[in-house]
């Protein structure tokens, strides 16, 4: 069983998947920063200074200055702003992944076309060669 596990891990697909997961985690940090540090301020500017990430509805009694205070106090909050930001993150990640896959497919297609040698059609006799054959056949 240990040998089977070693064989499984040594397969290229498992290693490719592991590399993809690690790069995906790093990519998530980049997209989170992109949304939080660049896109949110722009959206906030157009929305009159509203920061979506901090928007919430208190589901209970009490008054809190921020969502963090409400959460620390154990109050139930409906954090709709975080949900909006998660949707924006998803859309950005999906778009970037789409563009990456599209680029990779374009590169694959270009290299596949370059690598495939053009198949030459078998050459048949030319018109002159056919006429010579006909002439020779008629002479006989």
Strand order in the sheet with the most strands: 1-2
Helix- and strand-based class?
Answer: mainly alpha
So, CATH architecture?
Orthogonal Bundle
Distance N to C terminus: 80 Å
- Fraction of residues in β-strands: under 5%
Weakly predicted, low-confidence segments: none
| CATH class assignment | Mainly Alpha
From the spread of the alpha carbons, the general shape counts as: elongated
Which percent bin holds the helix content?
Answer: over 70%
SSE blueprint and pairings:
Elements: H1 2-10, H2 12-46, E1 57-58, H3 67-72, E2 77-78, H4 80-115, H5 127-139
Antiparallel strand pairs: 1-2
Helix pairs in contact: 2-4
Structural descriptors:
single chain; 140 residues; mainly alpha; 5 helices
Task: Give a description of the structure.
There is one protein chain. The protein is mostly helical. The protein has one domain (2-107): Orthogonal Bundle (Non-ribosomal Peptide Synthetase Peptidyl Carrier Protein, Chain A), CATH 1.10.1200.120. The chain is 71% helix and 3% strand. It is built from five helices and two strands; from the N terminus they run H-H-E-H-E-H-H. The chain has helices at residues 2-10, 12-46, 67-72, 80-115, 127-139; strands at 57-58, 77-78. The chain has a two-stranded antiparallel sheet. Helix 2 (12-46) packs across helix 4. The chain is elongated, with a radius of gyration of 32 Å. The mean pLDDT is 81.
In short:
It contains five helices and two strands, in the order H-H-E-H-E-H-H. By secondary structure, it is an all-alpha fold. The radius of gyration is 32 Å and the shape is elongated.
